[in-house]
Design goal:
mainly alpha, about 400 residues, about 80% helix, 16 helices, single chain
Length: about 400
């Protein structure tokens, strides 16, 4: 599979874009908390990104199904480049900050633009994934893809934390900009055949409606997406890590990089295993158990007062999430017609990708109302409740065997 130049090139694009995005995520979180010392401000970072993401995601999916996918990916990466340069300008004092409630106007404007740009990244990747691999290789390819994605999630936060500690915020933003430029070059250079444009384009809203009907009429796809969305919405603790490190564990920005990377490290280990042993039997039950394990690990993290125990809990949560990522990606690829991949991927992004940012806002608000530790315990317990509700309301997902989709 790694001898396939198209698949390798696509993985390089994903890794470079992920590194850029994750370095910015770590740096801007530290930047904003340094200015405000307010957990709610950390939640506002997520809300500022997710609102424009919601507004543009469906239109991005339509564009991916009707326009050259590599060019769209290139423009999205160039958008990441612009936003990181804006943030570097603020950090260095080159651009004016401009007071805007919490933080600064320019920082949150750059985050909002990032939300628009990110709406294109995943649909481009998911639609090209099906062009570079045969259908029978989707499950194994999803495992390899998960390893690459999670490697970016390990390296990006760790690198971001080190850059902030040793070189400052400006250096971190500039390195992220370099990765964004490299990702743009990688995607435009990708060797892959794209489907010919449709002879007739359906009206935008009619086409988007077709994608929505497909997802909402498919219990397996809808159940898997809803399970992840609500579990991450309530169970995510990553947005609050700067507050945990500063107020509970009493460490510096290097520790932030380690804890941000810990879940991804666990997911990489699990992805390596699943790439060699792709799941087939009892996939639905395995997905439910994995998400339940994620919720229990989040509760364990909230109760920990030792740095390395906290890191271990987050690593275990990443292993559980790694199972979920591979299964959800495989279900989506096997269930979606090729001509609808952009739209379905964008809907999946609304469920999955935006849940991280919306969950960041929920985490910040809950921490403000309930206190830092109680809010994370509550979120882990809510994740367990979501698993129980999904098992009852989506019996087809609970009984799913991936061989039924091939």
């Amino acid at each position: 599979m790694l001898r396939n130049p198209g698949f390798v090139g696509l993985l390089v694009y994903r890794l470079l874009a992920m590194l850029s995005y994750q370095i910015v995520a770590v740096t801007v979180g530290w930047h904003v908390y340094e200015l405000t010392r307010d957990p709610l401000a950390l939640g506002m970072i997520g809300l500022t990104e997710v609102v424009p993401y919601f507004c543009f995601a469906l239109f991005a999916g339509y564009a991916v199904d009707h326009l050259p996918r590599r060019k769209l990916g290139m423009f999205a990466c160039l958008g990441l480049l612009v936003t990181t340069l804006m943030l570097a300008g603020v950090a260095s004092g080159t651009l004016p900050a401009g007071a805007f409630g919490i933080g600064t106007f320019t920082i949150f404007a750059a985050i909002a633009i990032n939300g628009v740009v990110r709406a294109f990244l995943s649909p481009v990747y998911m639609s090209l994934f099906a062009r570079v691999l045969k259908r029978e290789h989707f499950a194994r390819g999803a495992g390899v893809s998960s390893v690459v994605m999670q490697t970016g999630l390990v390296m990006g936060p760790a690198l971001g934390g080190v850059l902030v500690a040793w070189g400052g915020k400006t250096s971190a933003y500039l390195v992220a900009a370099a990765f964004a430029l490299a990702a743009a070059i990688a995607i435009v250079s990708l060797r892959v055949t794209e489907p010919p444009p449709p002879a007739e384009r359906a009206p935008v809203f009619q086409s988007i409606g077709e994608g929505l009907r497909f997802v909402f009429n498919n219990q397996v796809v809808l159940g898997a997406q809803a399970l992840d969305m609500f579990s991450v919405l309530f169970g995510g603790a990553v947005a609050l890590l700067p507050a945990f490190i500063h107020d509970v564990l009493h460490y510096g920005p290097e520790a932030l990089g380690v804890l941000r990377a810990a879940p991804a490290a666990g997911a990489v280990l699990m992805g390596l295993w699943l790439a060699r042993h792709p799941p087939q039997k009892h996939a639905g039950r395995l997905l439910l158990w994995a998400v339940a394990g994620f919720g229990l690990c989040i509760v364990g993290f909230a109760l920990s007062r030792e740095f390395w125990l906290s890191a271990a809990m987050l690593m275990l949560s990443g292993m559980c999430d790694g199972v979920s990522v591979v299964l959800r990606s495989t279900i989506l690829q096997l269930s979606t017609p090729d001509e609808m991949r952009g739209r379905v991927s964008s809907i999946n992004g609304i469920f999955i990708g935006s849940s991280n940012e919306l969950g960041a806002f929920e985490s910040g608000l809950a921490a403000k109302l309930m206190g830092l530790v109680p809010s994370v315990i509550f979120g882990g317990c809510m994740t367990l409740a979501v698993v129980g509700a999904t098992a009852k309301l989506a019996p087809k997902l609970r009984r799913l065997d991936l061989r039924d989709l091939q």
